[in-house]
Structures are given as C-alpha cells and as structure tokens.
Design a protein that fits this description.
It is built from two helices and four strands, in the order αβββαβ. With 84 residues, it is α+β, with helices and mostly antiparallel strands.
C-alpha cells in the first residue's frame, strides 16, 4: 500500500473540481463535491465518479460519470445530465 495514494487521489479530486467549474462556468459560490465510488448497478464499470453541486437556497444536484475519477475528461462533462 502506498502512503501517497490518498494525496494523489485528493489532488485528482481538486483538479476535477476545477475542471467542472471551468467547463460549466460555475460561480465561486457553488460548492463542488466529487467522489469516486463503487458502482452498484450491473450495467456500469466497477467505479463511477459522482459530482455534486450545492449552493445556498437550492437542492443539491447530482451528476454521474461512469468511469474512475482520474479518467474523467472535459468531453465527459459536456452534456452530462443530472441524475434525478
């Protein structure tokens, strides 16, 4: 087990948050949370990335990319639909 893995994962999460803010042109007031989790659905890969947007007075909005966090690209974010 690498002692640096959590640091690398947190850096990837920070980079993805910046990418989400840039691609979706989100203001600084919007809080962005990203998480890589095990996908529990039978038709998806082992890992998925959840993107949650939160802002005052609004419900949190969830978006899913069905690939590991480190593999998410700007193209994955374009046209991504909110999970209801």
């Amino acid at each position: 087990m690498s002692l640096f893995k959590p640091k690398v994962a947190s850096e990837k999460a920070r980079q993805l948050k910046e990418l989400v803010r840039e691609v979706w042109a989100l203001p600084e007031e919007v809080i962005i949370s990203v998480m890589e989790i095990e996908c529990m659905e039978s038709n998806c890969p082992d890992l998925e990335t959840n993107i949650i947007l939160m802002s005052d007075g609004c419900e949190a909005r969830l978006f899913k990319v069905y690939k590991p966090l480190a593999e998410v690209t700007p193209d994955d974010l374009l046209g991504l639909k909110e999970v209801s």
